[in-house]
């Protein structure tokens, strides 16, 4: 139910094992973009032939409708977009990852964003999200949701990049702006594609 709720309106993708045990990435089902609007859709994906689902992902974008591939590239079809910072590290460096996430969240709080921010621990690192509903309708009418999201993530990174570098203590933890038209992120409560860990949400 949690995965279904998160996926609604988003383009979905999965990592799954084929019959030979190879991990493959799929974004289409019967030549249509993969979507999950209810539990039946989710079960249909889990029962795909020659695809033992391991991990499930969904786009930062939320669309008015997803019926054809062309819907995904129609900018006027994008209703909302979820700002996401990808704090990319290794599981062994989790303390540094948490420190960077705390720095990021503290900065967002200074701008009045507190109740709209949440964290997903995705496996080796974490994703810090601003809920897409945090942006006002007047702002969304003035600027495209994808532009707002990219700009917000890029702006915060530019302000905190030196601090992120200091907190990583030379362990190569990156905070990247991966927002683009088709980017997907791990769904809450999905398994990691390689590690035996589950993506959990935290306040």
Structural class: alpha+beta
Number of helices: 5
Q: Output mean pLDDT.
A: 94
* Strand arrangement, major sheet: 11-8-10-9-13
Taken as a percent bin, the fraction of beta residues is 25-35%
What is the overall shape? globular
Report the order of strands and helices: HEEEEHEEEEHEEHHEEE
What would you report as the Rg, rounded to the nearest angstrom?
17 Å
| Major pleated sheet | 5 strands, antiparallel
Could you list the spans in which at least 5 consecutive residues all have pLDDT below 50? none
Short description:
30% of the residues lie in helices and 26% in strands. The chain is α+β, with helices and mostly antiparallel strands and 203 residues long.
Describe what this molecule looks like in 3D.
- The two termini are 19 Å apart.
- The chain has helices spanning 2-7, 39-46, 94-110, 137-142, 145-167, and strands at 12-17, 23-26, 28-29, 32-33, 52-59, 61-63, 78-81, 84-88, 117-121, 126-130, 174-176, 184-186, 200-202.
- The chain is of the alpha+beta class.
- The strands form four sheets. A five-stranded antiparallel beta sheet has the order 11-8-10-9-13. Strands 2-1-5-12 form a four-stranded antiparallel beta sheet.
- Helix content is 30%, strand content 26%.
- A hairpin with a 2-residue loop joins strand 3 (28-29) and strand 4 (32-33).
């Amino acid at each position: 139910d949690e995965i279904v709720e998160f996926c609604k309106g988003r383009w979905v993708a999965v990592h799954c094992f084929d019959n030979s045990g190879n991990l493959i990435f799929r974004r289409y089902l019967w030549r249509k973009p993969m979507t999950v609007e209810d539990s039946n859709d989710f079960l249909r994906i889990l029962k795909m032939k020659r695809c033992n689902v391991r991990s499930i992902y969904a786009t930062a974008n939320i669309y008015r409708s997803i019926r054809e591939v062309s819907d995904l590239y129609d900018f006027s079809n994008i209703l909302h977009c979820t700002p996401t910072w990808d704090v990319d590290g290794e599981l062994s460096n989790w303390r540094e990852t948490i420190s960077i996430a705390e720095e990021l969240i503290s900065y967002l709080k200074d701008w009045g964003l507190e109740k709209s921010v949440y964290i997903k621990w995705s496996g080796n690192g974490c994703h810090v999200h601003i809920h897409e509903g945090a942006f006002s309708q007047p702002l969304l009418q003035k600027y495209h949701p994808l532009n707002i999201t990219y700009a917000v993530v890029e702006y915060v990174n530019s302000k905190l990049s030196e601090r992120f570098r200091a907190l990583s203590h030379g362990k190569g933890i990156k905070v990247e702006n991966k927002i683009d038209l088709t980017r997907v992120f791990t769904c809450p409560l999905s398994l990691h594609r390689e590690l035996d860990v589950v993506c959990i949400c935290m306040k």
